[in-house]
Amino acid sequence: MPQTEVVEGSLIEVVKSLKQEKQRLSSELEAVQTTAREKENGLKRVNAALAALEGTPTGKGKKRRSNGKPSATKEQVKSIVNDLVAGGMTIEAEQELRQAVEKQLVEQGYSLSGVALRFRGVLQAFQTRQRTDSTSSSTESI
Asked: For the whole model, what pTM was predicted?
């Protein structure tokens, strides 16, 4: 039995020693991480100051994905709507007209970003013009 007591005592000492080592390493790690965070913050401040002095962007802005295609202007949408209406499409067929406009814009290399808003604006202008001009027809240009 004395041998098992020696083994148990040795295990207790080993566990105690390992726990002390764990505590020491945890403290050192925390100190190193704190120092690293401080260095990172200092580096960010220096980079921001350099960017401000040199006039370069800091990269803090919102990152946007870009497909590299330009967005169509309201005038471009208006021109396409005019051409389609002159070609026989009616304003009342709004869904088909919108799809035809989008198809032409894509074929011309434009992004469809913002097209719905521009299309609505063009359509509203056309409808307002129709209401104010009682003699106009749906084939007249905007």
From this structure: 0.48
For the chain, the structural domain boundaries read 1-63, 74-132
- What count of Cα atoms within 13 Å lies in the side-chain half-sphere of residue 9? 6
Query: Would you tell me how many other CB atoms lie within 10 Å of the CB of residue 118?
Result: 20
pLDDT tens-place string over residues 23-39 = 999 999 999 999 999 99
Q: Which two tokens stand for residue 21?
A: 């080592």
Three-state SS at 6:
helix
- Mean of the per-residue pLDDT values of the chain: 84
Q: How many residues does the chain have?
A: 142
Residues 103, 81 contacting (CB under 8 angstroms): no
Name the DSSP letter for residue 88: T
Closest CA to 119 of 85, 84, 69, 73: 73
